[in-house]
Amino acid sequence: METETLTSLTDGYRPGVEEGPPLRSYAVFSGIWAAGFAGALAAARRSGRQPPQVTAADVLLVGTASHKLSRLVTKDKVTAFVRAPFTEYEGPGGPAEVEERPRGRGVRRALGELLVCPYCLGLWMASALELGLIFAPRATRLIASTFSALTISDFLQIAYKAADKRGLQSS
Q1: DSSP string covering 10-57, please?
Q2: Mean of the pLDDT values across residues 22-41?
Q3: 158 lies in which domain range?
Q4: Does any domain span residue 3?
Q5: Cα–Cα distance for residue pair 20/38, rounded to 1 Å
Q6: Chain segment 90-125, per-residue pLDDT in tens
Q7: How many domains does the chain divide into?
Q8: Is residue 16 assigned to a domain?
């Protein structure tokens, strides 16, 4: 029986497109995430640390904090220096944000894809915060609550701007 490579299995994934997404690099990054997360959980278990009972408050805290952290890394103007080696500037985005696209090939392109996608990076951020609740719960809660408060602040800024704009238009 002939063995198929990842490349042959993914032929035709994007017909008519000369160069498809860097699936091999995506697989490597997925493996790194899974191995890192599993390794950290195994280390916690070996050291006698038990994952805390997850409460609804923890889910809300980690959810809002990972939302903000992933947007901060992937979209914020002031963190463009982190993305610059892997992305190309396209133009302004949302409030205090920019739009960029990944550049390069292989690992560089895959890392660029991760660094411009808040949804993709959200898993990495949420995982890091959850692991933080195991290894350094007080510090993690302080960090997460800071970014959660910033998320709420962002939404209030947008709501204020929308309300102010409506008020000016109705005058």
Answers
A1: HTTSSTT-SS---HHHHHHHHHHHHHHHHHHHHHHHHTTPPPPPPPHH
A2: 94
A3: 21-166
A4: no
A5: 30
A6: 999 988 899 999 999 989 999 999 999 999 999 999
A7: 1
A8: no
